[in-house]
Amino acid sequence: MVRLFDALDLPPESTLTPEITLSGYARVRIEGRSELLAFSPDGVDVRLPDGEAYIRGRSLVVRKYDAEGLTLEGDIASVRVLRRGEGG
Fold this sequence. Notes:
The protein is mainly β. The protein has a domain at about 25-85: Immunoglobulin-like. The mean pLDDT is about 85. The chain is globular, with a radius of gyration of 14 Å. It contains 1 helix and 6 strands; from the N terminus they run αββββββ. A 6-stranded antiparallel β-sheet has the order 1-2-6-5-4-3, with no helix packed on it. It holds the Pfam family YabP. It comes from Brockia lithotrophica.
């Protein structure tokens, strides 16, 4: 069986699954499609194609938000991802 993305020779990052990168405790990057649901200096809620992400911390700021993704900076305390269909 050949996967569609392999057959089309597409890179893995072109899938609907977001790539979330935590750099130390100071930066979170969510690559791929996302929608900012809520923002405060203490928390950010983001809708992902297959669920939601919840970032908590202090002094959080949005450094970049465009079609490629979302970059948050500040004192990151936690990153929680809930996939659709999973309970809290």
